[in-house]
Write a structure and sequence with these properties.
Oligomer: single chain
Strand content: under 5%
Shape: elongated
CATH architecture of the largest domain: Up-down Bundle
Order of helices and strands: HHHEEHHHHHHH
Structural class: mainly alpha
Low-confidence stretches: none
CATH topology of the largest domain: Four Helix Bundle (Hemerythrin (Met), subunit A)
Strand order of the largest sheet: 1-2
Helix content: over 70%
Distance between the termini: 64 Å
Number of helices: 10
Radius of gyration: 19 Å
Length: about 220
């Protein structure tokens, strides 16, 4: 029997786990914008070598959460309020279009899935499970975009969404805004199911702009 080659799955899975943990730390604000990543401290904290850690850093840099600076290392991305506002305004327009199109062309199965995920969103809010809430929230937005049937819209949105991932997460850190966000999602799901294009479009836009307002109030 020929000698088996080393199985790379373990290392890949490890890099994914590190990526998820680091992403959560950045989104939660454990690591602040402008802060340099201390690779030595993280390898000790996670009990890993630098190889999977650096793989994770590359993923997070591609998501816009980190900047990889030559001769300096990885630094948490710093964004101005003006830059965040610009991106949110464009995303709001794109999501408004997604709401309009999804209400027109989405299949009943797509709409049922969005409604079901919205119910899961409510449960994660009730359990104050913020990481699960954010994951479901992102899945709902993606499902609405996909249900629009417009690939160009989906790709355009994806290019921008990573740039404000941290801001979108932190927009719901107050109890009042978090509750309002859940209610907005429920209203969106209802409008989509009713095939109410105008309302779905308006609610999708307002939802994003309310997040922007929340960020500005916090800052």
């Amino acid at each position: 029997m020929s000698q088996l080659k080393p199985d790379p799955i373990g290392r890949t899975a490890l890099a994914v786990e590190i990526t998820n943990r680091l992403r959560q730390m950045i989104l939660e604000g454990v690591m602040q914008p402008g802060e340099k990543i201390n690779e030595k401290a993280l390898t000790t904290q996670f009990g890993v070598s630098r190889t999977p850690l650096r793989e994770a850093l590359k993923v997070l840099a591609a998501e816009g959460l980190l900047d990889l600076i030559p001769h300096r290392g990885a630094v948490i991305t710093r964004q101005s309020e003006a830059e965040v506002a610009e991106v949110f305004q464009v995303l709001a327009a794109l999501e408004g279009l997604a709401g309009d199109l999804a209400a027109k062309v989405a299949s009943e199965a797509d709409l049922a899935q969005i409604t079901e995920m919205t119910e899961q969103l409510r449960r994660s809010y009730a359990e104050t499970d913020r990481p699960t809430y954010f994951r479901i929230n992102q899945a709902i937005h993606k499902a609405i975009l996909v249900a629009s049937g417009n690939d160009t819209l989906v790709k355009s949105h994806e290019l921008l969404a990573h740039r404000v991932q941290r801001a979108r997460y932190q927009a719901n850190l107050t109890p009042e805004r978090w509750r309002a966000a859940v209610e907005e999602h429920e209203a969106i799901a209802k409008a989509l199911s009713a095939r109410d294009t105008a309302t779905a479009s308006r609610l999708m836009q307002d939802h994003l702009l309310h997040k922007l307002t929340s960020i500005r109030v916090k800052s």
